[in-house]
Amino acid sequence: MAHGLSDSDMKKEHFDKQHDLDDKLDQLAQWIKESRHFIVFTGAGVSTSTGIPDFRSGMDTVLPTGPGAWELRDHNASRSKKAVVLNDMHKAIPSSTHMALVELQRRGILKCLISQNCDGLHLRSGINPKYLAELHGNMNLETCSTCGAKYLRDYDATIGRLDHYTGRKCDKPECGNHLKDSIINFGENLPSNELDKAFSHAEKADLCLVLGSSLTVTPAATIPQRVAQRNKKLVIGNLQRTPLYSMATVNIHAFSDTIMQGIMERLDIPIPPWIVRRRVRVTREKTSDDENYEILIEGRDPDNTNIPFSLFKSIEINSGEKTIEQLNKEPFIFEISKKKNSDSINIRLHFFGHYNEIPFDLNYTNASNIPKEEEFYLFYNPMIGQWRKTTKSDDFPL
């Protein structure tokens, strides 16, 4: 069973004085500018400002989310009703830390983001998975136990089984075997591909920034430790002192958001607003009798079109003034008669609505007007409640 921190000194939270913090951020920003291989290692502390509690913060923590989950369990205590906590992690909006890391990765400054978090916020924020190593899994990702195919879900893919089976099966016709969630429980081995990626970057890194991690969980904590062992710069940003405190080049005691906002100001790089990113594929094929069109609507990973992404709660198909079909589960496949090709077609996409996304309408003058294959992005700004349809991966709404 996992526990909180047993050493009371390790639970104590520290805050740098403003002039010390400024000096440390000035130095870190300069190191980032000079770095040739900059990596970041994140823990639960980067998500507390979004309303997701961490695990090891003490009973007297200043965090609005309150004590860590394991700290509460060790004290047989309940979370205070005053705690600012989300009941549904899928409603969490990526923090300024998440979005700052996205921008640094997009600009090629951040070479790899190594994360202990399984809340899915790094992927949701827009980090390209090519530059992300999720050591402890992702609550939105499941994989085929046989062929290794990946499936992203806009819902919690876990059902709490110790064997990790989700009850769903691989969509590939040549496979069809059982899917497993990707969460790594205590005592289980970390995924070798993610671990190899993380250590590969640790061997190249000349600067590693740790954000919001107690660095008490191994083998994950050995990744930033490896950077220090190579006599490269290790900067730890955490309210509590960590086991690697004496190995760090600099220890910064401040909130992750405070650190990243200060760094981005010094780098003169604006932190972008968060946008909901979706990729949709529409395909049209003739049926075997050549009398109907078969239409398939799919979600896809915005960064990798080969990975299916379950995006839709339901899909409604309207022809003319009439609703002809309502689909409530995947696969979203329907047929339209070629004989009624004069009727307009409206396909209304209903999302899971974690961010109050409004439905999106795909309008076609007739069935033949539906492309044989069309792939596009839908970007949603939750602050203004509008979608933008585009074929460009970076054409975000204002």
TrEMBL record:
Q: What is its EC number?
A: 2.3.1.286
- One Pfam family from the UniProt entry? SIR2
CC annotations in GO: nucleus
Instruction: Name its GO BP terms in alphabetical order.
Output: negative regulation of transcription by RNA polymerase II
**Recorded GO terms, molecular function?**
histone deacetylase activity, NAD-dependent; metal ion binding; NAD+ binding; transcription corepressor activity
Q: Which residues bind Zn(2+)?
A: C144, C147, C170, C175
Q: Write out the similarity annotation.
A: Belongs to the sirtuin family. Class IV subfamily.
Protein name according to UniProt: protein acetyllysine N-acetyltransferase
